[in-house]
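thought: user wants a sequence for this fold. calling inverse folding tool.
action: design(structure=
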């Protein structure tokens, strides 16, 4: 048994250094080896304890996916290869579903003369409503095209079909006949119902926000500065300060600056009309964030980059000052990082996507449109997770064809799906994935009013990685 006097001495030291004595630390003090290691520390801090007791890996942020710019001429063949790659990736996901074990090609279905039960996987080439108000898809795979009829008298199936969009890839189980398929079931790529809810062994916080829009006349300087003061432990209630003290990660999900020339009315609404100066001022503000907090950021449609997705990491020509921040990780949009890994915990995968495709699905998907459209980021995010793609309809964003992989494919199931763009704050969950749509730091502008965006500014989401509890803090 450990020496009780030594154990008591450590507890007194922890209290003297204002370190919260968690159940994990108390449990660790039952080990003679841990007690010797702690007493040997030159300085007892929360960081040194985490490193010692929980064997935290050296790098707290591991980049899983971040896409660089591909400087090459695109051809028709590149687009063909891109769609074939996407089809292959999602087909592989769908084929793992129990209902899709015996899929055949569309050509083989067309060649059948008699009615048979069949299952196929195809991309929606076209979608229409018949004169009898049934839905009819034209589905295609590498071997051909076939019509799929979904009867209006099957309400659950019809509801799924009504929300399907062109270019998404689905599985269909049905009956063949007259060179068509009459659907009995539609299988989406979907997140498995058995997806694990992971929790960290360490109590630490990840903070999520975005859409700073630095440079705009309506940028909320005072509120953002109050947020920075909170991270430094000089603002907020005692509970909120304790939370900030345990913050280890800060996510900024695009539109870091307001940009220049983004829309015709913008120039007169800019406080800073130089793009480099916008990034420099943001960098000066982010310098105030304690070094213990790692900053993970990606671009958005207002940043000084092409609009084509994936957007590469910010260009150093414009955002040089951000790259000088020692605790900054500047990634592509979209990207995936892993945080919070320890020697015996594999950490959380966080999918970052600014959300430029959201406006399209807010209107194009009937169930989302009637439920509130762009105000329902939770429904849009759920829709994309079910399709396992950030822009299943090609027209929803301008994307760059890649022949080796589709960067917008959700092939790695995230623990957190984090977005921005529509300037609202929502926290929801779908099959143990925490879905966060981040707030903004800009007041209502004439452009937002024109496109129907109603902002909920100056809010951040703080997630306790040990409990997965999320709190919205208003500044």
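)
observation: tool returned 475 residues.
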């Amino acid at each position: 048994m450990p020496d009780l006097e030594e154990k008591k001495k450590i507890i007194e030291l922890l209290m003297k250094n204002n370190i919260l004595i968690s159940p994990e630390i108390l449990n660790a003090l039952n080990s003679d080896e841990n007690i010797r290691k702690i007493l040997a520390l030159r300085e007892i801090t929360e960081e040194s304890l985490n490193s010692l007791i929980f064997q935290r890996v050296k790098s707290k942020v591991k980049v899983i996916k971040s896409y660089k710019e591909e400087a090459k001429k695109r051809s028709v063949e590149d687009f063909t290869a891109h769609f074939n790659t996407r089809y292959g990736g999602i087909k592989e996901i769908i084929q793992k579903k129990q209902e899709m074990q015996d899929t055949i090609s569309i050509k083989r279905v067309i060649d059948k003369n008699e009615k048979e039960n069949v299952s196929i996987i195809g991309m929606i080439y076209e979608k229409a409503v018949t004169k009898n108000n049934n839905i009819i898809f034209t589905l295609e795979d590498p071997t051909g095209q076939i019509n799929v009829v979904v009867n209006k008298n099957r309400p659950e199936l019809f509801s799924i079909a009504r929300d399907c969009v062109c270019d998404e890839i689905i599985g269909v189980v049905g009956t063949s006949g007259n060179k068509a398929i009459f659907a009995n079931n539609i299988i989406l790529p979907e997140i498995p119902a058995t997806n694990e809810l992971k929790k960290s062994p360490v109590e630490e916080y990840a903070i999520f926000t975005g859409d700073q829009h630095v440079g705009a006349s309506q940028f909320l300087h005072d509120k953002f500065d109050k947020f920075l003061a909170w991270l430094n432990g000089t603002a907020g209630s005692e509970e909120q300060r304790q939370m900030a003290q345990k913050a280890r990660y800060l996510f900024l999900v695009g539109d870091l600056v307001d940009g220049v020339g983004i829309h015709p009315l913008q120039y007169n609404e800019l406080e800073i009309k130089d793009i480099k100066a916008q990034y420099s001022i943001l960098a000066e503000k982010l310098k105030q964030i304690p070094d213990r907090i790692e900053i993970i950021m990606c671009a958005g449609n207002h940043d000084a980059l092409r609009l084509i997705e994936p957007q590469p990491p910010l260009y150093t020509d414009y955002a040089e000052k951000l790259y000088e921040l020692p605790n900054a990780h500047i990634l592509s949009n979209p990207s995936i990082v892993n945080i919070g890994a320890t020697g015996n915990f594999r950490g959380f995968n966080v999918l970052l996507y600014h959300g430029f495709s959201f406006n399209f699905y807010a209107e194009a998907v009937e169930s989302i449109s009637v439920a509130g459209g762009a105000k329902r980021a939770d429904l849009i995010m759920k829709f994309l997770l079910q399709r396992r793609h950030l822009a299943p309809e090609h027209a929803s964003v301008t994307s760059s064809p890649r022949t080796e992989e589709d960067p917008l494919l959700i092939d790695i199931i995230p623990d957190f799906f984090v977005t921005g763009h529509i300037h609202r704050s929502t926290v929801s969950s779908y099959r143990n994935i925490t879905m966060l749509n981040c707030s903004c730091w800009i007041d209502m502008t004439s452009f937002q009013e024109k496109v129907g965006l109603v902002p909920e500014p100056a809010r951040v989401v703080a997630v306790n990685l040990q409990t997965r509890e999320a709190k919205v803090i208003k500044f």
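thought: summarizing for user.
answer: Here is the designed sequence. The CA atoms of residues 156 and 230 lie 48 Å apart.
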